Amino acid sequence: MANSLQQNHSVQAAVDFIQNIQGLLPQKFQSKVAMILGSGLGSVTEQAEVLAEISYNDIPGFPETGVAGHSGSMLLTLMNNHPLIILNGRIHFYEQGEADAMAPVIATLKALGIETLILTNAAGSLLNSAPGSVMMIKDYINFTGQSPLFGVADNGRFVSMSKAYDAQYRYHLRQIAEKNDIHLAQGVYAWMVGPQFETPAEIRAIRMMGADAVGMSTVPETILARYHDMKVAALSIITNYGAGMEDVRLSHEQTLEYAPKAAAKVQILISGFLDHLYS
Ligand code: HPA
């Protein structure tokens, strides 16, 4: 199967389509920052001035989305007066078993001039972070055996992952959190395939192996962004403790209930981060 990263013509069609819409805006819009919103974080867009909303379904080559809480659209926005492309909704590996589902999206962002990708997700806590809090990802462990770069033929596929999440960005986000009295933990994110939640035994195992939070996304997008030489910052919204750590039945509804509780904190962090990136 040809990897969708290699379908340059469809990336160009997506870029042309989006740039046409940018050209219709009353003011010039050129963003160097994009953000992918995780489950239940849609309210972060309420703080942004939305100049245009484009459904993924209308963008040539973009994948279709289907999870509740992910509406699937690209927003051209100003947040705190800074240009920001918001991707409201992502495609997960567990939807069709395709680790490269987001490849056309990330390639399009690169072609649009994006230099910084901010990833957000909902995640389960393995120890220290309580539901409703935010954990900045400092590193990941890929427990899926998958890569979005399977099928890519060029030597660029041998991407170094030793600095997956930019250390300077983490420093600045810590500073912004401190200034705004937001408790911001840092930890290691474990990518699990899903869509089923983990067993208590899996949670104990991945905790022993060094993970602090667990989720079903973000890592393939990190790999794709690093392949395209974009810098990455990532925030996990803790929506629950890992399976077996407390006596509740995990559900997607719980994720959608808890994620909005941290949306205001995420918005403050992103707003300050944009001030830094555009300074
Ligand atoms: N496990 C995996 N993904 C998740 C969880 C979890 O506990 N919570 C939110 N997303």
- Distinct compounds present: hypoxanthine
What is the makeup of the main sheet? 5 strands, mixed, barrel
* Name of the top-level CATH class: Alpha Beta
Task: Tell me the quaternary state.
Answer: single chain
Mean pLDDT: 92
Amino- and carboxy-terminal Cα gap:
43 Å
Query: Which radius of gyration do the C-alpha atoms yield?
Result: 18 Å
Tell me the strand percentage band: 15-25%
Query: Which sequence of SSEs, written as H and E, runs from N to C?
Result: HEEEEHHEEHEHEHEHH
**Shape estimate:** globular
Helix tally equals 8
Physical arrangement of strands within the biggest beta sheet: 5-8-7-6-9
Helix content: 25-40%
What brief labels describe this structure?
9 strands, 24% strand, single chain, 8 helices, alpha/beta, five-stranded mixed barrel, Rossmann fold, 279 residues, binds hypoxanthine
Overview of the structural elements:
The chain contains eight helices and nine strands. 30% of the residues lie in helices and 24% in strands. The protein is globular and about 55 Å long. It has 279 residues and is an alpha/beta fold. The chain has a five-stranded mixed β-barrel with strand order 5-8-7-6-9, surrounded by five helices. Helix 1 (8-24) packs across helix 3 and helix 4 crosses helix 8 (263-277). The structure holds hypoxanthine.
